[in-house]
Structure prediction request, 278 residues.
Amino acid sequence: MSLESDITGIWERTQSVDADPAEMASTEDLSVLGEFLDALERGAVRAAERRDGEWHANTWVKRGVLLNFSLRQISGYEHGSTTYNDVLPLADTDEFGDRGSRNTPDGTVVRRGAHVGSDAILMSPSFVNIGASVGDGTLVDSCNTVGSCAQVGANVKLGANTLVGGVLEPVEDTPVVIEDDVSLGAGCRVTSGFVVGEGSVVGENTLLTPRIPVYDLVADDVLYGRLPPERRAFARYVESSVGDTDLIEGAAYKPAVVATDITAETLEATEREAALRE
Prediction:
């Protein structure tokens, strides 16, 4: 049987009875879940994939992540001088150096079941959750979170204090996706399954979420839930339908994102210094 069919079988069995799933888990079930976590860490399976130009959730993978919560008991683990309690240990990062990846001490936390590619840099403090994928050559700067099942591509720069949300449930929903060669400025927030297109540059403190419109000045269109490839995006405020009220002096405004063409100057400003790779 395949890993997908094994996970699907466990899911269907545990959902069909009214009992504590953790008490139902067999040694064989936990062995399958361990193989599943190994596959996630290798990048052999992913919570979302691009098919026919669109990103789609792999429902069975997200179910496998959920099973690792519901079928495991909370245990105590040691990390340095800290005892922590969780259903999963942290990922084994011993092989990071062999593939040219770095994680600085005292606060780079990679949870079991997260994939970190080659030539990546994780600066402390940062957190990469289960099911997330961080691509080759990507920089995760200080004070960053990469949420459960989030898909971050290759050669991405996540500026300091950036939040990349996940979307674990519903399992049918596609998680946040940051495509290859994207640069997110410091303080950005990407949530609720938003897709940032390849090669885009996002200004600092920009909130990208499906509830906030993206005014694409290149295609003369208003978009929700995605930023097209090769765009320079930044936060602005537009007039709200609330309009004037006695409670607000002047007009009321709501957040928006404006997307324009990328200039050579913008690309030059986002290039990573060569010293980071030496």
